[in-house]
Amino acid sequence: MSNFAFTKINYILLAIGMAIVIVGLILMAGEGSHEGVFNADIFSARRIKVAPLVSLAGFVFIMVAIMYKSKAERNLDKKND
């Protein structure tokens, strides 16, 4: 048994979660309004609803990835108790 807190699968799941968060941030990006020109696209459903939900899902996925234990690790913990 290794002394590391995370296994390879934890790091892979963390990377997936970070990618989801980045996708959410990219969905929020776009041209804003300028002093003389109003851009109504800043109130689009993609920026106001979809992108924050995608980012939130990515953060929840990261929390799950941090707490994830493989079946072998859970069985080993049960044997040690």
Main traits of this protein?
single chain, 81 residues, mainly alpha, 3 helices, rod-shaped
Overall description:
67% of the residues lie in helices and 0% in strands. The protein is mainly alpha-helical and 81 residues long. The protein has one domain. Helix 1 packs antiparallel against helix 2. The two termini are 16 Å apart.
| Main sheet summary | none
How many separate domains?
A: 1
Number of strands: 0
Unreliable residue runs: none
In terms of structural class, how would the helical and strand content be classed?
mainly alpha
Secondary structure: helix percent: 55-70%
**Beta fraction:** under 5%
Overall average residue pLDDT: 88
Instruction: Give Rg in angstroms.
Output: 20 Å
Report the principal-axis shape: rod-shaped
Number of helices: 3
Roughly how many Å apart are the termini?
16 Å
Short description:
The chain is mostly helical and 81 residues long.
Task: Spell out the blueprint of helices and strands.
Elements: H1 8-28, H2 45-67, H3 71-80
